[in-house]
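User: Predict the complex.
Assistant: Input components as received:
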Amino acid sequence: DAGVIQSPRHEVTEMGQEVTLRCKPISGHDYLFWYRQTMMRGLELLIYFNNNVPIDDSGMPEDRFSAKMPNASFSTLKIQPSEPRDSAVYFCASSSTLAGGSNEQFFGPGTRLTVL
Amino acid sequence: QKEVEQNSGPLSVPEGAIASLNCTYSDRGSQSFFWYRQYSGKSPELIMFIYSNGDKEDGRFTAQLNKASQYVSLLIRDSQPSDSATYLCAVNPSGGSYIPTFGRGTSLIVHP
């Protein structure tokens, strides 16, 4: 398996523009997570899905952020409009089971977002 | 708010020494504990997990768990420069949720 795939790997945009980050989880994994990582705040969970259904989006910072998972092999995280404080590395991760605590998360390579 | 605390470091150790990384957590009912390694510019990857009190060894890595004191540690024996990375502690909370809370990580530098 190719692992979790994210695109783009780098994104530079101007304040006010819409940004869409994409993720393809590992085939067969039924949980998908979106994280944001910054030096100041560390790794923050934004939202997670189970079987394509959003379960907890309490980490989404504002209404400017939205996430979808239309099918088991694809998810998007959208920021509209983007702001300079959104600059961070965004990771997508997937896992295959949460039962019994065996919930190793497999992370994608991340998208480094810079909002000017 | 369930918290996971780590010293941000950097922790600097000479090659061949034992590196000791520590993590404390606030949720007394936590059951599962994970150590992820993150190289600079890369994504986190799982290196160890532990559920039971005591030690768990895997090669040069040993995870130690003390639930009474609410801490988990990672020992790296015979540290190598290639071990230089940020180590993230993650803790599954109590209450049936298996969504881990991550600490902010400890930066480890192993110098030749």
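Chain B is about 0% helix and 55% strand.
Let me know if you want any component modeled separately.
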